[in-house]
Amino acid sequence: MKNYYPILERCPLFNGIRMEDLSVMLGCIGGRVLSVSKGQSISREGDPATHVGMVLSGAVRMVREDYYGNRSIVAHIGPAELFGETYACAGIAALPISFVADADSQVLLMDCRRITTSCCNACAFHSRIIFNLLQLVATKNLVFDQKIQITSKRTTREKLMAYLLNEAKLQGGRSFTIPYDRQELADYLEVDRSGLSAEISKLRREGILESEKKQFTLL
Amino acid sequence: MKNYYPILERCPLFNGIRMEDLSVMLGCIGGRVLSVSKGQSISREGDPATHVGMVLSGAVRMVREDYYGNRSIVAHIGPAELFGETYACAGIAALPISFVADADSQVLLMDCRRITTSCCNACAFHSRIIFNLLQLVATKNLVFDQKIQITSKRTTREKLMAYLLNEAKLQGGRSFTIPYDRQELADYLEVDRSGLSAEISKLRREGILESEKKQFTLL
DNA sequence: GAATGTATGTTGAATTTTCAACACCGGGAG
DNA sequence: CTCCCGGTGTTGAAAATTCAACATACATTC
What we know:
Number of strands of chain A: 11
CATH topology of the largest domain in chain A: Jelly Rolls
Distance between the termini of chain A: 55 Å
Largest interface: A-B, 41 and 41 residues
CATH architecture of the largest domain in chain A: Sandwich
Number of domains of chain A: 2
Helix content of chain A: 40-55%
Strand order of the largest sheet of chain A: 1-8-3-6
Radius of gyration of chain A: 21 Å
Strand content of chain A: 15-25%
Number of helices of chain A: 8
Oligomer: homodimer
Shape of chain A: elongated
CATH class of the largest domain in chain A: Mainly Beta
């Protein structure tokens, strides 16, 4: 177990937890390590959603199957990242997706109910874990909300401006750097890359902004 | 305080809490009632995001202001509904929006930190509240995720089909009823109403579905 | 320095969406 | 019954997006 500490330390779920408290705490919340080989599933659609998982080594993919049986990969979860926390915390009866090992992996499975219910000895770190979990789920919420806010605009120009104005606000100035290249920004805004490039050029010609690669200035 | 119990009882945050435990518990989590008159703000953009609010009477609106100072109403929060929980739980320094009374109102403000940190006497209902809060935030997450999943499709037809297939899956059958009229569905899918109507007709002509108002059957 | 690859910008045609306007239907009010 | 109204379907023109293809710039590699 000890050899996973460097990974556990990197996971925000354990922020503020001293490593020396980890083993006690893992017992407290029912943590157990599972080894899975590539292609094997950790949980399948329809399984009860009771566990929060964390990738210790390898990788896990989140797979969704639609009405007609078309499979698609929803997310790729790497070391120190959590999976299944939304479903477990939402208290839904059955998982709407599956988690499949993307490589030979080891994952830490924790019982969500035992995280949210204080243990009898009311350990200090326990309430910290709850706080961290809540913070993680709420932060994801903010990220989603922001994306919806932006992509619900109807035109490329509106989406782009909503994104840039928000970025300006966040970074506190008219000049700022975005973390995406053109293709990634197009993917985020759910628009066509070439159309996006064209729109940026147009805004530049109209004197609304200046830009150079990932650097933007609103005028 | 007692006269608010019927409202409190309706809020999912207090699911599984006995009413007779409420007053102890509210003390435990630092609950206090605030009366605000119409137009007065409860929290302003930039304020620390430390409180979870609940509307006891009246209504509250969530207001966002963009870079250029354009104000827009993001959400309307009615009795027994929560507000600010996402921001407080995400642990962000400052609110990105404001909460303004939409009518003369009374709201219950609770200290988020005192919810997430177990009180010294480790009361049973306290852990239930945490569980409920986590569940609320996570559920909102699922709702957002589903909406993104659907609206990230590029065409009206794809969005519509993604929505209907998901609805079919959720309701467990090819026949189901949707909770939206045409305009509302268009708003949810972020498309034009008339275009949506046209697309539904087309799918019907192509023999892909049957529909009658809010009743749909996939073939 | 030439070859290669990647990121970005540009363009025009095909497709799709939006917008405005109107027709139709059924229910409720008077 | 008739009138009115909200919800829905239809249509055609205008606007915007997507798509494919190519141009350009720059960095890397050999």
